[in-house]
Request: fold
Amino acid sequence: MVVPLVLVAACSRSGDMRVAEGGGEGGSGGGNAPASQAPSIPVGDFGDLKGLCGPKPADFKPSGSSARGVTDDSITVSTMGDPGNQMQPGLGQEFFDMADAFTKWCNDAGGINGRKIKVTKRDGMLTQAATQITEACQTDFMLVGGGNPLDDVTVEPRLGCELGAIPGYVVTTVAIEAPLQVQPGGIPADEGLVGAYKALFEKYPEAKDKVGILGQSFGALGAVADRYEDAVKKAGGTVVDKQLAQPIGQEWRSIVETMKANDVRLLVSAGTFAVNATPLIQEMNNSGWAPTAILSDQSAYNNFNLQTAKDAAMPDFYVYGTYWPQESADQKPAAKLALDLFHQKNKTGRMVYFNYAGLNAWLLWAAAAKDCGADLTVDCVLEKAKRPGWTAGGLFAPNDVGPLTEMHTNPCFVMTHLDKDKGFVVDAETTKPNTDTIFNCSPDNVVKLDQKYT
Reply:
């Protein structure tokens, strides 16, 4: 699922352009730790993706000239993020951390058909993403496992140099619909997931006709709230309040008072809870009012909201996603693998959505590149990335991935409920799972929207 959102801040770390061969600096511990510290991670295998990374085959022999960024012994790619920006420092650091963790693990196993991965972590700093793409065009094979909130400006330079991409996420309609990419979590700009809305309407019938939407007033991100409003209506709900908040410096009292005046019962987040929303919840506490429940897409699967639940009285808070959360890792080997891989970079940290999205993209890219063999080209990788029923080794709900013209919104979701002590706990009663233990999968979970919102 694309998170059409936003300023997902990690921690206050500054990023720059860095090159690593399967590791590199950054993160809290474990980035360059020997593989022996994580014995539970199989060498070269990830879930049902067998032999993903490994040494050069005996019959390895390229038949033609190499693509840009590719030699007989290495593949140079880039991961995009925005951690060095001043508005939301740390934004996208999770993509850089996962790039380090995955490439180190893969290179330790031998690389992609013996080619070691060299990853350049390019910091778009929110406003410089196009410049970073132009630089990537000089040296890099592809973009893998990252993203930028203001990604509309990256499309022209990327296509101009035929820089293929398998991104962690995309945001703007221009970027969603751009060619020369495969989005493993892709959502077409004119489709919406409604299954989660229907699930909460059933749980809270009094909220169905009292839905509020809170989005962000920042460039193209404002259209996200319009998309969500359309999807809520298609799910049978009635929107009584829609507001856009400033990404920084927002005065929350007026927003809360408007929600209260409109008797909002279910608040749908269109990016607000992707960042630290403690001041919003505290203002609700101060006013003596709160909606019955809050619902967010998977961008809210982060440490900010877990801390907010500890620091303030939160309404019932739900996050719907398409992957196995780390809280249930003991029930799913692929989820445990993801957590073990992440802990090689950050020994004590919690995985958040961008970690999952980045890993999903890396696994798809590696599987496609491996299948291309010695003759590695962008066209081949994008062709081999067409994967019916893709699950990222068992980590995600099944979804058919490929070019946008062949993709639809993932018809699966799992609802998690935030518990201040246990984290994001799978709510099976609300989800009503029918696939892979925790997911509700049905064509009825997806609708066609009235238009493409830009």
